[in-house]
Amino acid sequence: MSEILIFAEIEEGDLHSTAGELIAAGRKISDDTGDSVSVAIIGGNQDLGSKAIALGADKAYIANDNAISEGVADSYLAALHKICLEVEPNVVLSSKTPIGRAVGPRLAYRLGTGIAQDCMDVSADSGSGRVTATRPVYGGNAMAKFTFAEKNPQVIIMRLKAFESAEPDSGRSGDVVELNISLDESDIKTKLVETVKQESEGVRLEDASVIIGMGRGLGGPEPFSQLEDLAKVFNGAVGASRAVCDAGWLDHSYQIGLTGKTVTPDVYITVGISGASQHMAGCSSSKNIVAINKDGDANIFKEASFGVVGDWEKVLPAFTETARELLDS
Amino acid sequence: MSLNIIVCAKQVMDPETPMSAFNVDEAAKRVVPAQGIPPVVNGFCENAVEAALKVKEGVGEATITVISVGNDFVMDVMKKPLSMGADQMILVQDPATENLDALGTATVLSKAIEKIGQPDIVICGQQASDWDNAHVPMGISEMLGMACLSEARSIDIGEGTVTVASSRSDGYEVFEAATPCLITVNNEIGEPRYPTLRGIMQASRKTPETWTLADLGLSDSDVAPALTLTELFVPVNDRQCEIIEGEDEADSGRLLALKLREEKII
């Protein structure tokens, strides 16, 4: 029996929210192959190891070294590479976070193995242990399934929220193992000079349960305040299409899509968004999509469950006002 | 100081191809090129060319070499980086590149960069709009032992160092590395410039050099795939949109809110 190794990131001293998602994906592969699920926690402690076990892992590796520099992909890459050489996993799972998507592919190339990026689903052949990964291609216009050649580990980068984390079960048991790794200074080729936080007011796009989407159809930056007003009604956030950000109407931090943020709100209310597949790739997992657009043939109406075909300048104020009344009452 | 900048670029199907013209041959597991819609230089690769031109303007002296791997180049399309202002272009053109996966592509590009020799920086688009792998550049950095600075939205060149800012969901991070290094960029680096008439004229007089895999010392077994495509399909969308219509557009807006409430969506 071999192992499925999960690269669990740390955020503010705790396991990153994606750790549980990756463990769930690992469990699914494990159901097919019988491999155990291990978690690599780089720069962490025993306590985080126990948390990973509670989330469904069979084993946790804790690796620390003074050369590990927080937020620098090179550090995690070098550490994970050393762990892989020791553990020899069949599969490595990483998440499509800034660190995860920088570490996973480079690990695969360093080990000379295959890598599948931005995967929505995984399964494995029980006999061969080969994983099949399902991922969007051509900007989300098509879906592809890939299987890996013989070499291990098969490196898979999971899309955020592709799997749901299990509820922690403190009754689960598993080993938490400290690994001695020693990084070479030459492994760390980049230096993090500065981290600049630009706190946006209100709810973070990734955390919002209601998102209002701003599209090119709004014609300019001015309508943003009206969308913000609507977002406030739901305690939600405003996002935007790439066209809006490229035009400079909004900062790129608002961008939803294949490049940009992947969001999964309960409701995504789009205003003047045509629904190009490139955009939909970042929001198609929303529970409900609502469309306001003057072009009844726009692709967004193929994705939405409710919509109005009309001029947003007339539709939106009435919609906002009614929604406010309904939610206040 | 004259910088040696290499930009990797890919020819792709136009991502603006309407869905009605987007067809997948499921048996052959390939996307059928849309009739009458020419391919384009991948968008983020144009951003990479733009980034290189900005770097060149900043340092004064630099040579920008664009390299690409493929088998069915449309020369008018591929010359765009040259008309934007790149100095020279090398096309690795070989029937064996037809079925390259990301590992194979990174192998070929790395060998081509080694053959060009002594790059100070390699700039790549973050991902190509066909297979959306987003890791060929990282493969190149690993194969060449270079630092990898990903998703840069700005690039500053120092004495033997490069500093980039990379966007994060709540701001940005600044990273520094020594040259030679590899940088990936996306649309956040800025709109690719339009070729000027003068640029187009100059490009028309340049002939890209072409290399084969044999020129790079590569055989078929060196570019064996690590991944096999087993299925390719257009996802079925069975969502039905209920269009809300009121007496006028404002009324439709009001009814939409009521409907969403009734359905317990809001």
Could you explain how this protein is built, in words?
The complex is a heterodimer of chains A (329) and B (266). Chain A has helices spanning 18-33, 46-54, 73-87, 98-111, 224-233, 242-246, 277-280, 300-303, 312-328, and strands at residues 3-8, 10-11, 14-15, 36-42, 59-64, 91-95, 115-119, 121-124, 131-137, 142-148, 154-158, 175-180, 190-197, 210-214, 237-240, 267-271, 288-293, 306-309. Chain A is of the alpha/beta class and 329 residues long. Chain A folds into 2 domains: 3-187, HUPs (Rossmann fold); 205-328, Rossmann fold (3-Layer(aba) Sandwich), CATH 3.40.50.1220. In chain A, helix 3 crosses helix 4 and helix 5 (224-233) runs parallel beside helix 9 (312-328). Chain B is an alpha/beta fold. Chain B has 2 domains: 3-223, HUPs (Rossmann fold, 3-Layer(aba) Sandwich); 236-266, no CATH class. Classes of the chains: A alpha/beta (329), B alpha/beta (266). Chains A and B meet through helix 4, strand 7, strand 9, strand 10 and strand 13 of A and helix 4, helix 5, strand 9, strand 10 and strand 11 of B.
